[in-house]
Amino acid sequence: QVQLVESGGGAVQAGDSLRLSCVASTAQFSDYTMGWFRQAPGKEREFVAGIRAFAGNTIYADSVKGRFTISKDDAKNTVNLQMHSLKLDDTAVYYCAAGQNIRVGIITRDNSYSYWGQGTQVTVSS
Question: What's the rounded Cα separation, in Å, for the pair 66 and 104?
């Protein structure tokens, strides 16, 4: 069982930056592909960014490409999501997710991940 704890959410203005972090409770963190998802009120949960285990290649939703950066620190059991140029549409609860043996083709699917954090709220206002 892997526990994931997110932090770093908050209320910001459009154009601001935020950095989300997620710490995982596993000694085999390097084995896990990590993802960030978000869910806005009244909407379905959607993929934001993912980073694959070992290879470290990253993938982003089109809506955040060029503004968000995902990074993984295996030594600290941490995955981060650096968010720049935040928009009103980025307002959501952001969830960290972990899974093993996730192929590139399904890294964007939430059912590819076995473990989820409780989420952290990001609110962007004008």
Answer: 20
